[in-house]
Amino acid sequence: MPLSDPIRYGANYVPSAGWFHSWLDLSLDAARRDFEDLASIGLDHVRVFPIWPWIQPNRALIRQRAVDDLLALIDVAAEFGLSVAVDLLQGHLSSFDFLPSWVLTWHRRSLFTDRGVRDGIAAYADRLARAVATRDNVFAVTLGNEVNNLYPSNPTTPEASTAWAAELVDVVRSAAPGLLALHSLYDATWYDPEHPFHPADNVDLGDLTTVHSWVFNGVSAIDGPLGPATVGHADYLVELAAATSLDPARPIWLQEIGVPLPDVPEAHAAEFVRRTLDTVTANPALWGVTWWCSHDLERSLTDFPEREYGLGLFTVDHRPKPAAKELAAIIGERRRRTGERRPALRCDVDLRTEPGRRAEVAPGSAFHTEWVRLRQTGPVAIVAGDRAADPGHLTTRGIDTVLTQE
Questions:
Q1: How far apart are CA 125 and CA 62, in angstroms?
Q2: What would the pLDDT profile of 50-85 be if each residue is shown by its tens digit?
Q3: What is the DSSP string of 204-247?
Q4: Which of 217, 238, 275, 390 is the most exposed place for a label (fewest CB within 10 A)?
Q5: What's the CA gap between 235 and 400, in Å, rounded?
Q6: pTM
Q7: How far apart are CA 81 and CA 12, in angstroms?
Q8: Hey, CA dihedral for 186, 192, 195, 199, is it positive or negative?
Q9: 8-333, superfamily in CATH?
Q10: In the chain, where the domains are located
């Protein structure tokens, strides 16, 4: 898949009124007002999240009314020149899990290992992928939002997790061959040595790699809201993904990134956006950036973690926040930089074959610390040890020198 030029910029769509509960009584006029906000700052796409159990409340029932609502929302996005990526399994959103009753309580069974559940999900994925493929402004289908968040209540193994995702990617590809089929995982897949979803899944399955960069994972504690480890975290994840892939030309989508309180105080939000994007947009593997999220969360809704209320580019009454204004300015400036050569730091942990060593590259590790130090003087790639001597791999990734960790 070719990289886009200029880099694509979008937002993960969180409705300004009613959060995702708004799917229960969808207002297209409200969606129009939200999409008008996003188009006004130059964004070109949105990632949308239909709620799985409200579409498939029974394993044998997929509600056409709910499918039609999703298509109507996609059509409204088109009115504002926005292309759309659709996530299938919600799944997990902002600390809440949405699972159908047919996998809960007396029907308790794992999404990832139970054959009947997997068949039900495959039917759902096929139906929605075929439906959204009828819309010209849809460009991608992701299996779900950070599906690895669901594993504590849905037991799985690395082998089952891989087979589950590979099967569903094939379903989406068959149903919608003109769309990107993608797999989405949060960063435990890169850093937690016990996590049952492995880095290789992220770089082998689907048509491009997705990464989600959140500095509340401990990285902001290293050097503060504007420190080099914090503002470089998105670039670090993109590099880990590029180093893990056997395909040196595989694009990487920064599918989620945001300004979380209290890790990044509001006074530093605009500067965090500027420094983070200055760093990551220099990466030749970057396909696009999708901000989390479009709109703040209404204070009238309860029980969310505090940081979830203020992650929007816009307030609930449609005022652009400092992050939105800075992002708009950056979109006006950015074109893809090509042809620049850079050094790479050799990583002796090959995440695709040694997932049990993931802690050795986690934020605060010796390897991460050295990469952050080097990155302060300019772009620095990461290359896995067995590919550090492959001239073709290095050339494709724009690497001219391989450095070793001090």
A1: 11
A2: 999 999 999 999 999 999 999 999 999 999 999 999
A3: HSSSSEEEEE-GGGTTHHHH-TTSHHHHTHHHHHHHHHHHH-S-
A4: 390
A5: 18
A6: 0.96
A7: 16
A8: positive
A9: Glycosidases (3.20.20.80)
A10: 8-333, 342-403
